[in-house]
Write a structure and sequence with these properties.
The structure holds 2 protein chains of 2 kinds. By secondary structure, chain A is an alpha/beta fold. Chain A contains 11 helices and 10 strands. Chain B has a domain of about 80 residues. Classes of the chains: A alpha/beta, B alpha/beta.
């Protein structure tokens, strides 16, 4: 398989009350889509936050290493980490509307986020952005550039959020429940968009979701978490249709599946 | 089968200053039969919750009528209607927020009984009975909403809804914020209660797969109007309306 770009090596993450994620190891290759699935409180979001160095003050990786290519992210000073965050590893969140500033246009926020990494004139930023918008099939990018987040639907906001993270052309996109707040028809659009991006740019994606069907629709590999423990990790097809672990079986049985005639 | 609720040409407009009125529910007609589970499905803003709020009298209809046991609640005096509303109870999406955070769950479950003038001994007995019926330990009555899990809290909300022994239960996205394993338990509980108490349930949901497992009939809403109704299998295997087709196609 292709190059390994992110590696979790027996990672343990602790908060004040003790460890919440125990001994998790996995690796992500370029162009791979990994789904982290599990129920609330299983440590899914904590895991991807740790890769971004975004655990808040009382959270800490207490054991293990996280490698991005050859760099150990845990040993990086904040100044260096800031170069990777956003530029090399992008992130999108569940509530797209609230991750954008409500009183500024999409365009000005794009300029800001691009300037955080490299000084470029506004016109160049705009050209790049409109170019990407066209590539991923947004109609009327010019109008979008001038829009405010509240003028867009929830699904459109999420797609804009994805587009903004992709502008820096990161090699990894971390997506924390990106479709959970969306209607099913819109959810499908967003999923297709992420798949499309992988085709276009070869971006590796880690998607955190509690929705097994989203994992089934997108992922190459699936990691099942329960109470911070890795229950099962393997090819998506195998884990979802043929789980070996007791908990995974229980989880898959609970998923309501549509029966079509 | 007897019709418990008959909704005819129900319409609700919301007024906003400087804007045209929005028709949240537009000329909707359907019936709920005794002992069945009827699903209302549709995307956000399609009017599902507005219908629930109209049925429970939380808001007033602009036009049309709702007949519960052959009595038109839209034309009834408020105090008359209140008696009838004892027959129809609601379970909400976010269980923790539907309880008073500063009172114990036992207090919350007993509240509808207190409002109806029961004494405290009778309330305590009834609460214990309700907890057992919903598969909860008795000591849960002394806990606060933040001390229990989301699934337990939702069971407590169901217990509260059943306190006044209603005939109709309206579940507004009652399982949407729960994990799938918990969701399955709640669905099984609702189904068990429906059979043992001969409840009729209106189940508002956006998950068609869940609806297929659990509901007898489905009403599909789009933009405040009913686009299609039928059994889950009819809707899923042979959708007629454009929107239903899109909805079924979008399911992963």
């Amino acid at each position: 398989m292709s190059e390994e770009i992110l590696k979790f090596d027996s990672v343990e993450i602790s908060f004040e009350e003790g460890p919440v994620v125990h001994d998790v190891s996995f690796s992500l290759h370029s162009g791979e889509i990994l789904a982290l699935v599990g129920e609330s409180g299983s440590g899914k979001s904590t895991l991807i936050k740790s890769a971004m160095g975004l655990l808040n003050d009382n959270g800490l990786v207490t054991r293990g290493d996280i490698y991005y290519k050859a760099t150990n992210l845990l040993e990086l000073p904040e100044k260096e980490m800031r170069k990777i965050r956003g530029a090399e590893i992008g992130m999108i969140f569940q509530d797209a509307k609230s991750s954008l500033c409500p009183i500024r246009t999409i365009g000005s926020q794009i300029v800001e986020s691009m300037n955080a990494h490299q000084k470029i004139p506004k016109a160049v930023a705009k050209e790049k952005a409109l170019d990407l918008f066209a590539k991923i099939g947004f109609r009327d990018g010019e109008k979008l550039w001038k829009s405010y987040p509240f003028e867009l639907s929830g699904g459109m906001n999420q797609r804009v959020g994805i587009a903004i993270s992709m502008l820096m052309n990161p090699s990894i996109l971390l997506a924390d429940e990106p479709t959970s707040a969306l209607d099913v028809a819109v959810q499908k659009q967003v999923i297709e968009e992420m798949l499309n991006l992988r085709e276009l740019f070869g971006t590796a994606i880690i998607i955190v979701t509690h929705d097994i069907s989203v994992a089934a629709a997108m992922a190459d590999t699936v990691l099942v978490l329960k109470d911070g423990n890795m229950m099962e990790y393997g090819q998506a097809n195998r884990v979802i249709n043929n789980p070996e672990d007791e908990y995974t079986k229980h989880l898959m049985e609970a998923v309501p599946r549509l029966k079509r005639a | 089968m007897k019709d418990i609720i008959t909704v005819n040409n129900l319409t609700k407009y919301f007024k906003a200053y400087g804007k045209a009125d929005t028709a949240a529910v537009n000329n909707v007609s359907f019936t709920l039969h005794e002992g069945e589970t009827l699903a209302l499905v549709g995307e956000s803003g399609s009017g599902k919750s507005t219908i629930a709020r109209l049925l429970t009298g939380l808001i007033k209809a602009t036009d049309g009528n709702i007949r519960i046991y052959d009595k038109d609640i839209c034309k009834m005096k408020r105090n008359k209607a209140l008696e009838l509303y004892g027959q129809i109870q609601m379970v909400f999406q976010n269980p923790a927020e539907s309880f008073n955070p500063r009172k114990t769950l036992g207090y919350g479950i007993g509240e509808p009984l207190r409002n109806r003038g029961y004494n405290s001994a009778a309330i305590a007995n009834k609460v214990a009975e309700l907890l057992e019926m919903c598969g909860l330990p008795a000591e849960l009555a002394f806990k606060y909403p933040h001390q229990v899990s989301g699934g337990q809290c939702q069971r407590a909300a169901i217990a509260r809804a059943l306190a006044v022994e209603p005939k109709i239960l309206i579940c507004d996205e009652a399982t949407s914020s729960l994990d799938v394993t918990v969701q399955k338990q709640i669905i099984e509980l609702l189904d068990k209660l429906r059979k043992s108490k001969n409840l009729s349930i209106i189940f508002i949901c956006h998950n068609l797969a869940l609806v297929q497992q659990f509901c007898n009939r489905v009403v599909v809403l789009y933009d405040g109007q009913i686009v299609e109704q039928g059994t889950p299998d009819e809707i899923i295997n042979n959708p007629q309306a454009e929107y239903t087709k899109l909805l079924v196609d979008s399911i992963l």
